[in-house]
């Protein structure tokens, strides 16, 4: 079975990160390494990651694409799996990806929201799976950074993550599809926070539609960056 480096970009994720790291600790196929890329956090993200045994990579310049790229360049395993700091992979996540890896350059799986009352959580998973199916049918696989895995060598050959505000994960996935086979792994489930629904379902769907058409500006406008202390210069 291939070994996996797990990369987690994190910006002010002290409230969510422990749950993610606990989920990785419970994997039936343990990761070779867990890399938390501290993307200019002003909270205890880095300290929490170290306390859980993760390797922390400082990325002082904001931008999720930069954070993911730093993780990709630092990873030591032949395969890389990525998730987000507010997401929880199921216990068989890496094991399912390991089984699906032979003959493929990249893999991806289903996602659903946690923190919603049922049946909405289950419905979110069904809706996302239907969306992924449509993308596969039209020949544009939608690999999301919250739940994907790929050959590190192939990702570097594809140019890595482009420097865009959002959608960098999907662009990398489409570039990987030009190099080899992409596989959808239904067992590789990841549950993710529903916090992006705080502004309502409508704005959430509109932003994702904009992403799909290449209009990614503003996606991380509410990145929950806390204000600096009163005695600190905001530019510092």
Summarize the structure.
The protein is an alpha/beta fold and 236 residues long.
Strand order of the largest sheet: 3-2-1-4-8-6-9
Quaternary structure classification: single chain
**Spans of at least 5 consecutive residues with low confidence:** 200-206, 218-236
Provide the residue-averaged pLDDT: 85
Provide the gyration radius in Å. 17 Å
Q: How far apart are the termini?
A: 46 Å
Overall outline: globular
Percent range of helical residues: 25-40%
| N-to-C order of helices and strands | EHEHEHEEHEEHEHHEEH
Structural class by SSE content: alpha/beta
Profile the largest sheet.
7 strands, mixed
For the secondary structure, the number of strands is 10
| DSSP helical segment count | 8
- Proportion of residues in extended strands: 15-25%
Question: What's the layout of helices and strands?
Answer:
Elements: E1 4-10, H1 17-25, E2 33-38, H2 45-51, E3 55-58, H3 64-74, E4 79-82, E5 87-89, H4 93-100, E6 106-108, E7 111-114, H5 120-137, E8 148-151, H6 152-157, H7 168-177, E9 182-184, E10 190-193, H8 201-212
Parallel strand pairs: 1-2, 1-4, 2-3, 6-9, 7-10
Antiparallel strand pairs: 4-8, 5-10, 6-8
């Amino acid at each position: 079975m291939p070994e996996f480096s797990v990369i987690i970009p994190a910006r002010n994720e002290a409230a969510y990160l422990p749950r993610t790291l606990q989920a990785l600790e419970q994997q039936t196929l343990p990761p070779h390494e867990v890399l938390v890329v501290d993307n200019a956090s002003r909270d205890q993200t880095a300290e929490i990651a170290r306390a859980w045994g993760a390797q922390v990579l400082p990325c002082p310049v904001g931008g999720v694409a930069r954070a993911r790229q730093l993780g990709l360049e630092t990873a030591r395993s032949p395969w890389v799996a990525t998730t987000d700091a507010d997401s929880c992979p199921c216990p068989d996540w890496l094991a399912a990806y390991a089984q699906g890896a032979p003959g493929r350059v990249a893999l991806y799986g289903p996602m659903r929201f946690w923190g919603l009352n049922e049946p909405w959580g289950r419905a979110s998973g069904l809706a996302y799976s239907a969306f992924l199916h449509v993308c596969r049918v039209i020949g544009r696989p939608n690999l999301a950074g919250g739940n994907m895995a790929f050959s590190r060598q192939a990702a570097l050959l594809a140019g890595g993550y482009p420097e865009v505000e959002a959608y960098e994960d999907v662009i990398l996935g489409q570039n990987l599809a030009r190099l080899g086979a992409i596989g959808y792994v239904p067992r590789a489930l990841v549950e993710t926070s529903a916090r992006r629904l705080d502004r309502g379902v409508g704005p959430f769907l509109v932003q994702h539609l904009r992403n799909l058409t290449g209009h990614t500006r503003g996606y991380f406008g509410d990145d929950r960056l806390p204000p600096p202390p009163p005695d600190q210069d905001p530019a510092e």
